[in-house]
What we know:
The chain is α+β, with helices and mostly antiparallel strands. Helix content is 36%, strand content 25%. It contains ten helices and 14 strands. Helix 8 (231-237) runs antiparallel to helix 9. The protein starts with 6 loop residues before the first strand and ends with a helix. Flavin-adenine dinucleotide binds next to strand 2, helix 2, helix 5 and strand 10.
Amino acid sequence: MKAPPFDLVAPTSIEDAVLALAAGADRPGGVAVLAGGQSLLLDLHHRRVRPGLVVDLRRVPGLGAVDVHGSGVRIGALVRHRAFEDPALVPGAVGRVLPVMAEHVGHPPIRELGTFCGSLAWAHPTAEWALLAVTLGAQVTLRSAAGTRTVAAAEFSTGPHATVRGDAELLTAVDLPLPPPGAGAGFVEHRRTEASFAAAAALVVLEVGDVSVRACRIGLAGAADRPVRATRAEAVLTGAPVTAESFAAAARVAAHEDADPRAEPHGPVDHRRQVLSVLVRRALVAALDDTARAGGEEAA
Ligand SMILES: Cc1cc2nc3c(=O)[nH]c(=O)nc-3n(C[C@H](O)[C@H](O)[C@H](O)COP(=O)(O)OP(=O)(O)OC[C@H]3O[C@@H](n4cnc5c(N)ncnc54)[C@H](O)[C@@H]3O)c2cc1C
């Protein structure tokens, strides 16, 4: 199908972009942002959206940077998925897990054009970057003609393809806090075909002491209508010994108490919980292995 007719503007500053969004928000069908176009163009051609105005962001300068500072990373609105394939982009556990996650985002042409922030704005329930942002406790920056506000990533998506972003707001950046040196990260995903979205995924960030878990963050995709933290499993694991038994116990809690999956044609609820339990256990083991790499990097 062809896209419905729409007007297109290509501003060259953030100020002009937000003014265009404000003007477009009142049009029938509203306004859409064109970032990488990897979801918007399909939505247009399938006529799932019919915006009166499309604001092409690609000529706006200053949105394509990844800024690493002391305790975090700021990702601008035009940073492509492909940027995260570089293991040297970000230090520490997040830097080591980013390329593993990036490899699961679509396939190379999608990663060449699609953007990290566009993925958050499109809010697919199992998108890798939304899982990362929720697990790490990221902040999303939204700018409009009325000003700027920040929203916790955990509060940003309200369900499949739904967010708290108003039509006239531009998502300008996402700030990811970085875990302390010595932490490890592990990501494991289950998907049906090479290029399909995840059916489920788990991301773990782990800090271990001599014999016990000092701190952990466990994020789940495919456990609800948006990525969520497995806070009950985190509480079970924090302070527990670093053993296969405590990992298995935390994985069971994540799958049976934190997750609230819905049945799908390919996966009744019991099956989905079983998959989540396996993914969390594997992600915990991967994160523990990664703490050894963290130790090696610090010693070097
Ligand atoms: C075959 C295929 C497989 C894919 N597989 C995966 C996958 O496995 N995992 C995954 O996460 N994604 C996957 N994607 C989607 C891909 O990651 C998209 O790039 C992403 O969802 C949207 O990013 P974009 O930059 O292309 O945004 P666009 O397509 O340009 O925009 C998407 C939506 O977000 C809004 N938007 C975009 N940027 C902003 C902004 N800065 N401020 C406000 N609103 C904004 C637009 O208005 C639009 O509604 C796949 C896509 C395809 C076609």
